[in-house]
Amino acid sequence: MNKVEVLKQEKDGLDVWADIERYAKTGFESIDPGDFDRFKWYGVYQQLPKVGHFMMRLKLPGGLANVEQLREIADITDQYARGFADVTTRQTFQWHWLTIQDIPEIVARLNRVGITTMGACGDIPRNIVSCPVSGLHPDELIDPRPAILAIHEHLKGNKEFSNLPRKYKLSVTACPEQCCQPEIHDFSLVAVRHPETGEVGYGLRAAGGLSTQPHFAPWLDAWFTPDQVVDATRAVTAIFRDHGYRAKRTHARLKFLMADWGPEKFREVLVEYLGYDPVRGAADNAPGNIYRDHVGVHRQQQRGLNWIGLSILTGRVQGDQIRSLADIAERYGNGEVRTSHMQNLLLPNVPDENVDLALEALKEAGFEWGGHSVRRGAIACTGIEFCNLAITETKARMTNIVTHLENRVEFDRNIRINMNGCPNSCAQHHVGDIGLQGCKARIPGQTEQVEAYDIHLGGTLGQNRTFTRAIHRKVPADKVKYAIENLLNAFNAQKQDGEEFYEFIRRHDDAQLDDFLGVETIIGAPETRDARDPAAKA
Ligand code: SF4
Known about the structure:
This protein has 4 domains: about 5-65 and about 85-110, Sulfite Reductase Hemoprotein, domain 2 (Alpha-Beta Complex), CATH 3.90.480; about 135-275, Sulfite Reductase Hemoprotein, domain 1, CATH 3.30.413.10; about 295-370, Alpha-Beta Plaits, CATH 3.30.70; about 375-535, Sulfite Reductase Hemoprotein, domain 1, CATH 3.30.413. The chain contains 18 helices and 20 strands. The strands form 4 sheets. A 5-stranded antiparallel beta sheet has the order 1-2-5-4-13. A 5-stranded antiparallel beta sheet has the order 3-14-15-12-11. A 5-stranded mixed beta sheet has the order 6-7-8-9-10. Helix 4 (about 65-80) runs antiparallel to helix 9 (about 320-330). A hairpin with a 6-residue loop joins strand 8 and strand 9. By secondary structure, it is α+β, with helices and mostly antiparallel strands. It is globular, with a radius of gyration of 23 Å. The structure holds iron/sulfur cluster. Iron/sulfur cluster (SF4) binds near residues 382, 421 and 425.
């Protein structure tokens, strides 16, 4: 058994709360080292360097938040987290700079407004993600929010599932774009019609995941009624708990069990756990459309109402922005706000007559919703600023890349640029159009290694899903923006009529793509390039 398995057997992660309250009184130095791992069960991690500050992640099922919750998040951001929070790819908020003394008070304040951190991290079911326009999208088959909340309530604090072999990520969606990426989750319910009656229920995907060994989740040919969604969740989660691998942390996710069993055997075991055979024959309805954000002003299924999707570069927001968004949601919407897996925020239920007023107020608060497509499609993980596993800096670097491209390349197609500070893929570089994986590189003539990125291209989701392939490794970090610039210019010069960026990547081989990146020419002429870079000058 690995070290974490031993820790979990000694004390369940959910049982660490009393210790957190005690440590808040006795101080950081008094913390039992084993409890640092268990803190994750309450969404709390040590941040880099490990000298007394913590990161905390919330659970916001489906990315749903109301004004009262948002104001509390804003106040905590300012009071404890040095004035900023990060919207994460798990559709929630994350803070940094907390101390052990702060944590009980913060959690109590969150609980008072109906937010939990229980299960936000650790080997336990994580935040359930969904489409940020659940209940709003004109073409959705069913409102998935009741299913999301039923599953969330069932799993919250449930000791049957608090010692899983590894993290366990869930998604539930009825959006035809399936923007919450069911293909890369451990457990996903996707709205689909019964093959004979046409009744709307949920199909099942299981055992997807990224990290260092990406796997797509197969469709399990199992259809459930909306009343059976908790059954389905319990069964798959229990299979993972009982049969998942616990010897090595790097070989513990559900995807490894699925790789050994295959979907047919997995389904047979699922039937045993369920006690019934779910309906077969519902069609796998993965969308053809592979670009999935909801940024901009869009009409909802409800007549006269709109959502406004905001583009939050790298997910970082200031406390006063969060407070302003709450005020705007209250004044011009219905008091709801959503988060998205693309690290964005969304204001739903804005009546037609309020849209312009809301946009004006959002602009004043520093939000954006239009602009260059690289800004909309940029995602960056936490990186070396706070993450213990990071090799490279990410958020500031991604901001620099986006600013550079905005200034230098006209680009009117959808694009996703996903930047990770290490191979772990929290920002999902395996499924980006451009995936950047942090590493170190040695530069001739220099003794110290420099931060660098492996440039991967060609990740897509949907029907023709593929993971990225590494095209050029160890590109010095300050040169990555020039390589992407070259690639986008090559696309602009050589694209075919109506061709999307992912199609362009797909029709070229690795050598051609490497030529487009032109890394060797960049490395050979850094001064010239830097001199032309308005972002670098600034
Ligand atoms: Fe940290 Fe790596 Fe995840 Fe980024 S991808 S947050 S660096 S573990």
